[in-house]
C-alpha cells in the first residue's frame, strides 16, 4: 500500500509570549509624518493545553503600575484549535479505502445479477430475479413467494408457497420481457425456454455489452469520489502531496483489478449467448 504518512505538525502555543505590545493609546502625533510611541508591558497567562487543544484564558496589561484586563485586544486571535492526530488521519484513510472496496464489490454483484437475468440456451432460476409480483397490493420479488427449480435444461418450474398467488405470478411473467409463455395448471407454473435465434442472441449480446460498460462507468465514478476525498485531506494538510500520489497509484491498481473482473464475467456471458 501507500507509504506511511509524514509526521503531522500539531499546534503548540507559545508559552513565552512577547513581553511588550505597542500601545496605540500611548502614541502621540509629533508633527507631520512623525509619531512618538511608548511601550507597555503585557503578560499573557493561564494557558490551557490538553491533547491537541490550546486556548488563552486571560490577558492582562500593566500600564502605569496598574493591571488592566484587555481580552478584547486579542479577541480575534483567541480561539480553540484542534489538530488531527496520526491515528485520526489513518482512520480517515482506511475508511476511504474500505468504502471503495465495498462499493466496487457491489458493482460486480450488480453486473452479475444483470447478466443472470438475461436468458441463454439453458434454464436458470436467476433468470426470474427481476420479476416482481403484485402480492396483496404490494410488489414483491417472485423468488420471495415461490420456489423455482429447473427440472430440465430448457424449462423452469415455479411452485408458489401460496397457491392463491398463481394468477398474479402468471400475469407478472406475461408482462415481463422474458419472452416466455407460462403454463398454469392450478398447482404450479411451467416455463419452457424457446430456442434462441441467431438474431436474438446478437441482440442479447449487445445488451450484455452495454451492462458491462455501465459497470465500468460505476467503478470509475467510485475511483473519482475516492480521489476527491484524498485531495480534501491534502488541502486540510492531513496528507502530503507524495501521500496522495501513492494512494492514487494504489487506487488505480484496484480500479484496474475490478475492470478486469467485469471483462471476465462479460466474456463468459457473451460466450454463453453466442454458443448454439
UniProtKB/TrEMBL annotation:
CDD domains: RRF (cd00520). SUPFAM superfamilies: Ribosome recycling factor, RRF. Signal peptide: none annotated. Gene3D superfamilies: 3.30.1360.40, Ribosome-recycling factor. One of its GO terms (cellular component) is chloroplast. It is found in: Plastid, Chloroplast. Keywords: Chloroplast, Coiled coil, Plastid, Protein biosynthesis, Transit peptide. One of its GO terms (molecular function) is ribosomal large subunit binding. It holds the Pfam family RRF. Its main location: plastid. The keyword Plastid applies. Residues 113-274 form the Ribosome recycling factor domain. It comes from the Eukaryota. Residues 223-257 form a coiled coil. One of its GO terms (biological process) is plastid translation. PANTHER family: MITOCHONDRIAL RIBOSOME RECYCLING FACTOR PSEUDO 1, RIBOSOME RECYCLING FACTOR. Responsible for the release of ribosomes from messenger RNA at the termination of chloroplastic protein biosynthesis. This is Ribosome-recycling factor, chloroplastic. It comes from Gossypium raimondii. The lineage of its organism: Eukaryota, Viridiplantae, Streptophyta, Embryophyta, Tracheophyta.
